[in-house]
Structure formats: C-alpha cells, structure tokens
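Sequence of UPF0102 protein ACFQ34_29715 (Pseudonocardia benzenivorans).
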Amino acid sequence: MAAKDVLGRRGEDVAAEYLEKQGLVVLDRNWRCREGELDIIATGSAGLVVCEVKTRSGTAFGEPAEAVTDRKIARIRRVTQAWLAAHGLPWCAVRFDVLAIVIEPGRPATIQHYREAF
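Predicted 3D structure, token representation.
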C-alpha cells in the first residue's frame, strides 16, 4: 500500500472515531459504486451525515479542505443519491460535512470539522 493510501486510511480511522465521540453512528465507510466513493456515512439527530475526509501530513501545500472542489462536491452528491437508492431510501435529510485532518509525524492528529460544508 502506498504511503498516501496508508495516511488516508489512518485519517479515515481518526475521522470515524471522532464522529462516534460526537454521538454519530457510522453506517458505512468507503462505500463505492460506479459514480465514485463516499468516505463515511453516519447518522445522528441531524439525519444522514455524509462525510468527506481529507488527510494530509502537513499544510505546506494548503489546507486539506481546499481539496474539496466543486467537481468533487458534485460527485459526492451523485454518489449519495446512489447510496440512498441502494439502501431503499428515496429521500431523507442529508448533511454534507468535510473533515480535514492533519497527521504530522510525531504529533497528534488535528481535526477541522466543517459541518454543512456544502
């Protein structure tokens, strides 16, 4: 597994643990269809929460959340519709969050949680 993939997996683990501590229940991770992938799908009092996780080893090349482009947002929305259809949910309240995680060597992970990011 490439170093960036290991970092990404670790970031998703950190994100899932963080969300559970916030009272959310993780329903699915890395759900894929032909349209793309959803990192984390959770539920809580706000309904369904679709989380895009961006992990970096530092901010020298920008903040992790800056990688969530308009094109990426459109894809996440399409994949969310596919997830809803695959689970027999024609409609439900959906919140889209971004979790920006920085994991620098030898330091604890930092998490920026952007609720209702788009």
